[in-house]
Amino acid sequence: MPRYAWNKSPQQSKRRYFELIREGLSGSKASAMVGVSLSCGSLWFIDAGSVSYVESPISSRYFNQDDRIEIADGLARKEPVKSIAERIGKSFQSVYKEIARNRKPDGRYQPWFAHNQAYQRRRRPKVRVFARDDALRLLVADKLSQRWSPAQISRWLRRRYPRNAAWHVCVETIYEAVYRGLVLAATGGSLRTGRTYRRRRGRGRSKDGSLKQSTKMTPIAQRPAHVESRRQVGHIEGDLIIGAGQRSAIATLVERKTRLTILVGIHGGHTAQSVGDALIDRFTRMPVALRRSLTWDQGNEMFHHERIASATGLKIYFADPHSPWQRGTNENTNGLLRQYFPKGTDLNHWTQDQLDEIANELNDRPRLCLNDLTPNQAVRRWWNQDRYPEIRHD
Q1: What is the CATH number of the domain that holds 325?
Q2: Fewest C-beta atoms under 10 Å: which of 173, 291, 306, 318?
C-alpha cells in the first residue's frame, strides 16, 4: 500500500507518474507503476490541470519539465529567483516571467501545471493576424508602400488605435508577415533594405584605407561638446552617395538635432571643385542658424573645405579614418536613401526637383528619436521658437 499522502509524495514519484501519462499510459497503470493509489494519482492529475499531450523534445532555449520542477523546488525552499535561474542556466528575468505567466490562479507555481500551460499556448497551427484581419493587412500594406519602416508602423498603430489591442502588432510580426508574403508580395520593394528574407546579424567590415587631404583639417576631436549633445540646431553631417562607375554623385546633408535631410545634386563629376560649388550654392540659401557646422569624412572631394567655410560661415570638422559611427546620423540616412538610389544607378538622371521631393518624403516620416515627430515638424517647432529657446539669442 502507498505510504505517502498525495501532496507529500517524493518529486521523483510525481515526475515518473507524469512521464508515464505523457507516454500514453492510463492513470491507473501509471499510479500502480509508481506505487501510489489511483486516487492519489488522480489528485496529482487534477492539480496539474490535466496533461493533454505527449512530451516531445523542444529547443533548449525554452523551459523544459525539469527546469520547471527546479523552479518549483527552489520556490518551496524560498531560494532567491536569481539563484534558481543560475542553476538551470536561464536569465533571472526569464524565470520571473515564467513564474508570473504559468502559475496557478491561487498564485502557487505547480511545475506540471506550468508545463501544460506553456504547451497549450504554443500549440499550432494558429491563424496569423494578417491572414485573419484584412483591414489591418491593407493598412500596413499602405504604410509600407509609403516606405514606412515596420518599427514606424508598429508605433503608429498603437498611437492611432489605442483601444484596438488586436492591432498592436510588434515589429517582428510585421517583418515576418512581409517575408511570408502575407501583407505584400515578398519583393525587393516591400522593405527599405530590399531584402526578401531575414538574414543573420553580423559585424560589418570596413574598407581598407581612406583618402586623405594634404590641406589643414580640423579634426572631430576639436568639435565643441554641445554639437555632440544635439542640443542646438544647425550642426550638419555630410557625405556623398556615389553612382555607377564612380561617375555621378549626390551630396547628402543631415541636421543632427532635427534629422532634416537635404539632397544636393553634383553635376560635372564629384571633383573637389564641383562639390565645393554645389555645397556653397546650397548652404548660402539656408538660414544662418541652420548652418553652424559641417562634419564630413576625409575624402578628397572636400579638398576645397577652406573655400566652403569662407563662403558659408560654416565650421568644418573631419571624422577620423575608418570611423563611420562619428557621422552615424548621416550614415543611417544614406542607408535609407539607397532604396531610392540603388547601387549601380546613374545619379545624373535625377533633377534637383526630384531630389527635393525625395528629401521631403524622408522628412515626413515619424522618427522614434524625435518622439515620433517628423523632421519637418521638428524644424517648424524650432523655427517658431516655442520649443528650442536656447537659440533665441544666438
Answers
A1: 3.30.420.10
A2: 306
